[in-house]
Design goal:
With about 220 residues, this protein is mainly α. About 70% of the residues lie in helices and about 5% in strands. Strands 1-3-2 form a three-stranded antiparallel beta sheet.
């Protein structure tokens, strides 16, 4: 770890916000693994901040479900059980389905073009096995649909859920399996959306999100604890 960044845009954030954004990125990108203790004294020294902004940042991370805070251990990067992982995916399925139903009647030709271009980029990344780039572009594809839905509360819930799933993205990708299949599923969703069939597009999205759930459940049945 290094001191938190400064620069255009970043300077307008309060100190605790900068600490929060830095730690959130470290968690979501896997540099702070689930189970890692966030020791205040050490972190404050590494980041060059006092413990006040650090505690505020950790409190916000706890509210987002990224860390847990207990009297004995302090703050720890949250670990998800298999049951919690499946529950979050069930919630994600419901949110994504709703987003598509709301978005389809509102999507413009320009937005459809943007979604198609993102899916083409995913196709190229999948062919080259560039997993990180594929994952980031996939997130952008889904985020565009939530933006098009025009419901800020729905977007807030989605961001919070992704925060809790973020550090498990490799697990999610492993469960999804073939990346090319994911690209094909996105294309089918877009075809239904272009026809104005919101119900079919939403159903296809639900099926798409359900893939990791089904595989996780199959693995659990094959390897009971």
């Amino acid at each position: 770890m290094a001191e938190i960044a400064t620069g255009p845009g970043v300077e307008n954030l309060t100190l605790w916000q900068r600490v929060h954004d830095y730690l959130r990125t470290e968690i979501l990108e896997g540099r702070l693994q689930p189970g890692t203790e966030l020791v205040e004294v050490a972190l404050a020294g590494q980041l060059g901040v006092s413990r006040g902004p650090l505690r505020e940042a950790i409190g916000r991370l706890a509210a987002e479900g990224l860390v847990t805070v207990s009297p004995r251990r302090g703050a720890v990067v949250r670990s998800l059980s298999r049951e919690e992982f499946l529950e979050l995916y069930q919630v994600r399925e419901a949110l994504e389905r709703m987003a598509v139903q709301l978005a389809v009647p509102r999507l413009t030709d320009e937005q459809f073009q943007g979604l198609a271009e993102l899916n083409e980029a995913m196709d190229a990344y999948a062919a080259r096995n560039e997993v990180d780039a594929f994952f980031d572009t996939n997130l952008a594809f889904h985020a565009r649909l939530f933006e098009a839905a025009g419901n800020s509360r729905l977007q807030d819930l989605y961001r919070q859920l992704l925060g809790q799933l973020g550090s498990y993205r490799l697990r999610s990708l492993m469960l999804r399996g073939n990346l090319q299949r994911s690209v094909a599923e996105h294309k089918a969703i877009l075809r239904a959306a272009r026809r104005g069939d919101a119900e079919r597009a939403a159903r296809l999205m639900a099926d798409h999100i359900r893939v990791p759930q089904r595989r996780a459940m199959a693995l659990e049945e094959a390897n009971p604890t």
